[in-house]
Amino acid sequence: MKITIFTFLLLSLAVFRLTRLIVLDKITEFIRSPFYDEIQEMNENGEMEIYYTPKKSGWRKFFGELLSCYWCTGIWAAAGIIGFYYFFPDIAGPIILILAVAGIASILETIVQFFLEK
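Structure (tokenized):
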């Protein structure tokens, strides 16, 4: 398997963005919701806080734990992206590029926010 540094970086950024999309982003909450229980608690300021914990048993618990682990989901996202790239390169290429550019954009946004908050 021959892979260039550029391709490696592109795939890495795509996996980074896809993993964040699955594990953390609000837009994919509907994917995670069947595997989590929602717990609402009142904090010391009188504000309602919502926590999500994996379901208690069965396959929903397994997937809930998987989806709550950034590192675990990252492995599966990497396997999916790389498999997609090798088996369907013409279709995967544009999707990987979009995810990689979005990954760079999210990293840059985090850096900008860090300096704006100082």
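Residues 23 and 92 are 21 Å apart (CA to CA). The chain has a mean pLDDT of 92.
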